[in-house]
Predict the structure.
Amino acid sequence: MGKPFSVNTNRYNPYSAYRFLVYIGSTTQAVAGVSKVSSLKRSSKPIEYNEGGNAITLKGLGRTSYDAITLERGLTYDIDFQNWANAAQVLDQGAANTSLLNLRQELRIELQNEEGQTVYRFIVHRCWVSEYQALPDLDAGGTAVALEHIKLENEGWERDLTVTEVAET
């Protein structure tokens, strides 16, 4: 049998990817019906340089970029996605409509264990909606659920280390 995880010696299996909650801003109520969140990914560009007398090309750390995150959910009466997407929309007012919801929001993604306890929390900083799909392709012969998507640009993310491991029985 393998070695248990170092933090919780009673846990042998990794957490499942299907138990999660998403929060926009400082709200305490999770966004309704989110069924998929794309991965949190960052990459840093290497800077290549040469030193005199050294035949090897050296590499230094360049700028870090964070990939956009896509949220997907079934179409419901909840209008959180629509309001956030509309905050960036310039309609007849001549400026972004920030009265509905702030353009840039913190996003919290919480991974839960089998008992519904939060075991990981990631905070995604200064997110804004760069793409919004309000309605999918409609097909009278299909059986698919109607989904809406938002694509969120962000300025980085970090793991919230205040979330501590819970004792599992």
